Amino acid sequence: MPQAPPPAPPDGLRAAAVAVLNLSGLGLGYALVRRWLPMAACWVATAVLLFVALPADADGVPGPALVLYGVLLLLAAVHGAVVGLRTRLTGPAGAPLALLLAVLLLAVPAGGALWYQDAREEAVQQALLDRLERADHLVTAAGRHSFATARSDYRSALDVYRDLAVNHPGSRAAGQVPDRMRTYYTTVGAAYDHRDYCAAVEPLTYLRTVPRTMSKRQLGSLARWPDDRLATSLYECGSAGLTDGEADWVARFGDLLTTFPSSAPAARVAPAVDAAVSKAEKGVRGGEPCAAVERLNTLNGRITDLARSASGAADTADDLTRTAGRAGRSGNAGQYSCGVDQFKDGDFDAAQKTMEGYVDGNKHGGNLERAKKIAIGAEVARTLPAAGKKLPSTASGGSISVTVKNDSPDDVTVLYTGPVTGSFTLKGCGACKAYSLSSTLMTGFKPCDDSGRHYPQRTLSLPVGTTYFVHKPHGGSTATPASDTAKLRSGYVYTECAYTTRTLGSSY
Predict the structure, then answer these.
(1) What is the dihedral angle through the alpha carbons of 17, 20, 26, 30, rounded to the nearest 10 degrees?
(2) 3-class SS of residue 417
(3) CB neighbours of residue 446 within 10 Å
(4) Rounded CA gap, 358 and 375, in Å?
């Protein structure tokens, strides 16, 4: 058998040439010293790296793969240097030429690395543009739904725009963010352009929060874009609610006066509220005075609340306070017209309460005396509906004498209405007692018939015609009011008698 050639003398230049050639990743140093298996291993390692790295994407080559490949290259270089130190090179090339070739070949992996970096940066740009496009689609889709439904999508898109602008400021996608933000604002605030002002309030309020998370430098004029639109929307929505009688107009106007106290829409609030009060005041003289009075009373309370919340707009708050006072006074005064309307409609219970409220709240009202008469007439008509056919007047006096006596141990208030309306109270009869029910059913029963007894009494002078009487007990008495209808004619003297059984009866 032929013997293996003896080892070559050590040659550091040759060892360096083999080591540097192996750094190319192709195992060419092993080819010069005829080590085919290690060379094949270098090819396999490089192929695996290329499989992992290509095509280039935004994430690049995984870090562990790069580290492992670098370690393999270093091992190949060290191992190649050890082998090349005592192994002659194959072919005619000498060690100096091989080393020069090795240095030149290092340009291949270096150039590949630069190309890959460029490819990776382009992949990053494309990935950022893809994120931008997805955010754009999200905004477009959200624009087809109500803001409440689409709020989370709008926030997600804004997070993308913000990230691109802040964390990738030099990217092509970041350069397009300003245009996208303009589209974003117009899409979110689209309800304003459609004149749907109440629906526009919430999205415009949301847009005013965007500068908290994205700098005004990035937003430019968009930072103030929602302000005028929101002020107008708050006014228009509040004005519509004020006209329609909805309660949320106070909150809308309150937000407007608090957030934009010096704006043109804020200056229109007080006149709008004043106009609403004037309209309600006209309604008192119309066909539904009670509804107008209720409206005035409601306005009084709500305008007062609005004035308290408008502390940032002092002049407007003062105007609102004066308007609230006017609404309250008009509401009180309007109770008279309301009570008259209720009386004419036959709602005597409501008419009585309304007129009593008018009397209590208007001590110097021009209709005070007649209101008292109507309240009495309504109370009588609650027991005797026929008494409500005609509205009581302020007339007094007459030619017919009617004496009312109290044959009851209880104090009794006597109410009467007809051509003349009034009331008075008779003290209880100390020597009198309640009659049994059976005695009142007996033939010949005559209360107030004891000529030796002094009955509390009062004599009235009433006109000819029908007068309706109601006697009602005072205090804790459980007796029920009694009633009587007296048709008064000239030439007669009449007597009314109040007495007590289980209920309160009367006769004349």
Answers:
(1) 40
(2) strand
(3) 9
(4) 10
Cβ pair 422, 463 in contact under 8 A: no
C-beta neighbour count of 209 within 10 angstroms: 10
Rounded to whole angstroms, how far apart are CA atoms 209 and 203?
10
Of 175, 63, 151, 61, nearest in space to 112 by CA: 61
Residue pLDDT tens, the chain, 508 long:
444 455 665 655 666 666 666 666 665 566 566 667 777 777 776 777 665 656 545 555 565 655 666 666 666 656 655 665 566 666 555 556 555 565 556 556 655 555 556 556 766 778 888 889 999 999 999 999 999 999 999 999 999 999 999 888 888 898 899 999 999 999 999 999 999 999 999 999 999 999 988 888 788 899 999 999 999 999 999 999 999 888 889 999 999 999 999 999 999 999 999 999 999 999 999 999 999 999 999 999 999 999 998 877 888 999 999 999 999 999 999 999 999 999 999 999 999 999 999 998 888 778 999 999 999 999 999 999 999 999 999 999 899 999 999 988 888 999 999 999 999 999 988 888 877 777 767 766 778 887 678 899 999 999 999 999 998 887 656 566 788 899 999 988 898 888 877 554 444 3
User: C-alpha angle with apex 224: 128 to 258, nearest 5 degrees?
Assistant: 130
Q: Is 493 buried (19+), middle (13-18) or exposed (0-12) by CB count in 10 A?
A: exposed
> Distance between CA 380 and CA 48 in Å, rounded?
108
SS (H, E, C) 125-168: HHHHHHHHHHHHHHHHHHCCCCHHHHHHHHHHHHHHHHHHHHHC
DSSP annotation of 410: S
The CA distance from 410 to 370, in Å, is 29
68: Cα within 13 Å, side-chain hemisphere: 11
Distance CA 351, CA 374 (A): 8
Amino acid at 6: P
Question: What are the backbone dihedrals phi and psi of residue 455, each rounded to the nearest 5 degrees, phi first?
Answer: -90, 135
Strand order through the sheet with 412-417: 422-426, 412-417, 465-473, 482-488
Amino acid at 449: D
- Alpha-helical (H) ranges within 263-347 are 264-267, 269-284, 289-309, 314-344
Largest CA distance in the chain: 173
Give the chain's end-to-end CA distance (angstroms, integer).
Answer: 163
- The model carries a pTM of 0.71
Residue pair 336/392 in contact (Cβ under 8 Å)? The answer is: no
